[in-house]
C-alpha cells in the first residue's frame, strides 16, 4: 500500500491531535477520584468533554473535587459527578454498579485508581546482619499487616471484582452507545510492582502492586480470547503528589530546594517528581489507543533505571555515562 493510499484510508485529518485523543461524550468511572492521581485523571477527562463519575468512601474529598472542577468554569464541556461508594467488598461494588446503571446505558472507560498504603517496617532501621534483620522483619510485622490491613483487598482484589461487575456496561459502549469500540479498563499499579527492591521493607505493598500487574495481563488475555474487545492496561506511576506520596513544592515551602532534596533522596534521574500534565498525558495515550491491551505503562522519571542500586553505584554510573558522553561528543 502506498503512503497516499495508507493515509487516505484513514480519513482526512484523522491524525490531528484533537481526533487522536477525542473523548467527547465519553462516560468514565474513576474510583478514588477525589484526591491525588484520581483527581488529576477525573479533571483531565472532564476538561476534555467526558462525564466522569468519581467514587470513594469519604464524601468530603468527593464534594471538594466537584466544587473545585466547577470553579474552573468549564461550562458546557464535561462534568464530574460524585458517588459515595465502598468498592472494597462485593455488596459495595454491586450497589455502585446499580447506581451507575440507573443513570447511564454504557461506560467508555473504567479506571481502577483507588488504593492504600498501610505503612511498612523499615528494613534499614536495624542491625544489617542475619539476627538484626530476622528480629526486625519477623517480630516487627504480622500476618495481619499483609492479610487483614486491606492492602490486598483494596489494591488488587477489588480491581478484579469491580472490573467484572462493570463488564456489561463496558460492552454496551459499542453495542448501545455506537462507539467504535467497547469500553476499556485501566488498573493503577506502581513502579513498586516492578522494582526488585523492597523500598526499605514495604514487601506487602510491592507484592500487591505486582499482583495488580499480573491481574491486568490475565484480564486482558481472557477478554481477548472471548472476543469481547474490552482492552485492559495497567499504569505504573512513580513519585507523584498523592495521599500516599507527600511531595514538597513551591506552594508549601516557598522554595524548590525541598523538591530537589526529595528527588535526590529518592533517586529520580529526571530531577523532579511527576506532575498533573505528565500523568494526564499518560492517561490519554492509554485510554484512546484502540490497539493497546495488556500494556504496562511506566511513568516514573527514570526511577526504575536506578532501582535496587546503592547511592554509590548510581554516582559511579552517572560519572561513567558522563565520561562516555564526552568521548562521543569529542
UniProtKB/TrEMBL annotation:
Xref: InterPro entries? NAD(P)-bd_dom_sf (IPR036291), Sc_DH/Rdtase_CS (IPR020904), SDR_fam (IPR002347), Sec_Metab_Biosynth_SDR (IPR052178)
**Alphabetical list of PROSITE patterns matching this protein:** ADH_SHORT (PS00061)
The UniProt record lists the keyword Oxidoreductase: yes
Database matches in Pfam families: adh_short
> Its domain of life?
Eukaryota
Keywords carried by this UniProt record = NADP, Oxidoreductase
Q: Name one GO molecular function term.
A: oxidoreductase activity
Family listed: Belongs to the short-chain dehydrogenases/reductases (SDR) family.
Stated name of the protein: Short-chain dehydrogenase
Q: Which organism is it from?
A: Kwoniella bestiolae CBS 10118
Tell me the classification of the organism that encodes this protein.
Answer: Eukaryota, Fungi, Dikarya, Basidiomycota, Agaricomycotina
